Amino acid sequence: MASLLQVLTAGIDQGYFTLNAAERYSTMARVFVYGTLKKGQPNYKHMINTAKGIAKYQGRGRTVEKYPLVIAGKYNIPFMLNIPGTGHHVAGEIYTVDDQMLQFLDEFEGCPDMYQRTTMRIEVVEWEGKSSAAGSSVMECFVYSTTTYQPEWVQLPYHDNYDSSGTHGLSYVLRESRD
């Protein structure tokens, strides 16, 4: 039976994963982002800041289960409430990240107080470099959702796709602009 390292190395060699030499020697994890860390959103700059670690965009996905995605608080922060079976299939992006970036994301997301990092099943909608996902593929990814939300947040409108400039009119307030 092949070891996990042998399977991953074979996958890299066959082009299933595209990693540079530095990435081959660090542990990579899959992370699904659905809010301000997505491309074109206010905090995407952190995903491409190599001083914080490596984050490689893999494709677009959506949660297999439905979850409530709300915009809450005076800073209009997107939160995926960890209430499976309620809300929508939430759209987002899949990244592979190294240990350094994962640690940065834990700190950035206020884990475990504000958000909790858990694994969720994510359906691949589109894989990078491919016109569409070959069949319907499902993978486990880390997701920052929350169980530590205010009770009234359950009554807020549920979204299936977050955009800080969306028609909801609730623009995210950057940390550096908060009082």
In percent terms, what proportion of residues is strand?
A: 25-35%
Radius of gyration: 17 Å
Number of helices: 4
Distance between the termini: 57 Å
- Which stretches are low in confidence, meaning pLDDT under 50 for 5 or more residues running? 7-16
Shape: globular
The number of E-state strands comes to 7
String of helices and strands: HHEHEEEEHEE
Describe this structure as you would to a colleague.
There is one protein chain. By secondary structure, the chain is an alpha+beta fold. 16% of the residues lie in helices and 29% in strands. It is built from four helices and seven strands; from the N terminus they run ααβαββββαββ. The strands form two sheets. A five-stranded mixed beta barrel has the order 1-5-2-6-7. The protein has a two-stranded antiparallel ribbon with strand order 3-4. β3 and β4 (77-80) form a beta hairpin. The longest helix is centred in the first third of the chain and has 10 residues, at 4-13. It is globular, with a radius of gyration of 17 Å. Mean pLDDT is 87; it is low at 7-16.
Quick take:
The chain is an alpha+beta fold and 179 residues long. The chain contains four helices and seven strands, in the order H-H-E-H-E-E-E-E-H-E-E. The chain is globular, with a radius of gyration of 17 Å.
